[in-house]
Design a protein that fits this description.
2 domains, disordered N terminus, Glutaredoxin, Glutathione S-transferase Yfyf (Class Pi), Chain A, domain 2, globular
Length: 280
């Protein structure tokens, strides 16, 4: 007799929901981080990228640029806002990558945009907001609704879970993502329209970058970090994607920019992805 026949479908659903809740809740444990050290909660690296998540890679790059001491805590433990990444610092919890950066700028008195003038700061914010609030959703669309990548997406996020759980969790997350995409607006478009939006966004960034080392000259700013994080997540992690094809043809300077940032702030990139710690 199957478990579902013995307990009934509702009971089985309750059991699955309980297991899933425990999976995402994570173990309550105190960190041994030294006072003044940031604990960065994020997804584990993959074999291709330090982080497949642009917000996670952006936040870790910011920490490295500013030389703020930090430790990684890899896993699927979400913040109180239901988001990853998030940080702990001296007993405080801060969620959302942008709010984390605002907090760290104030706490450590750092500003990687200090060399920009008012006009450049306005352009930088516009670029960052476009990538994070618009272009980002085209990447989410690709990862969850491109059949050739869907299996990889499941393994990246939930590969460490036991067989029935990872499929159920992925199915539930995919349903939520579909609703999120529809609410945002991206999910109401055809595939061709979605990737057309992504192309126009990335070509706009490519035009601003031009032949410069960074968006505004010789020194990177927070917008450069956002560009780097998106390009890595969209091309290194998704080498067959329309994003990757674009950076090989019409927007090659974005790929060169990402390589430049990687060499500057992640000289240990290959070591990190070769070790590839598992999510807890």
């Amino acid at each position: 007799m199957q478990v579902s026949q013995y307990l009934g479908i509702p009971a089985v659903v309750v059991i699955f929901v309980y297991i899933i809740a425990k999976t995402f809740q994570g173990k309550k444990r105190k960190r041994s981080a030294k006072p003044g050290t940031v604990v960065l909660h994020q997804f584990a690296p993959t074999e291709l990228c330090v982080s497949a998540s642009p917000p996670c890679l952006k936040l870790e790059t910011f920490l490295r640029m500013t030389k703020i001491p930090y430790e990684n805590e890899y896993g699927l433990k979400f913040s109180k806002k239901g988001k990853i990444p998030w940080i702990e610092f001296n007993g405080q919890e801060i969620a959302d990558s942008n709010f984390c950066i605002q907090f760290l700028k104030k706490e450590f008195k750092v500003d990687i945009d200090s060399h920009l003038n008012a006009n450049e700061k306005a352009i930088a914010r516009t670029v960052r907001t476009m990538l994070e609030e618009n272009t980002y959703w085209t990447l989410v669309y690709y990862r969850f609704f491109t059949p050739s990548f869907a299996e990889r997406a499941r393994e990246i996020l939930f590969g460490h879970l036991i067989m029935p759980i990872k499929y159920l969790v992925y199915y539930m997350i995919k349903r939520k993502v579909k609703k999120d995409l529809w609410s945002h607006g991206i999910g109401r478009h055809s595939e061709q329209e979605v990737y057309g939006i992504a192309e126009r966004d990335l070509l706009a960034v490519s035009e601003i970058l031009g032949q410069k080392k960074f968006l505004f000259g010789e020194k990177p700013c927070l917008a450069d970090v956002a560009v780097f994080a998106f390009v890595c997540g969209a091309t290194l992690e998704c080498p067959q994607s329309p994003f990757a094809e674009l950076t090989k043809s019409k927007a090659q300077n974005l790929q060169k920019h990402a390589q430049r940032m990687k060499e500057l702030y992640f000289p240990d990139w290959d070591d990190i992805i070769s070790k590839k710690p598992k999510s807890s």
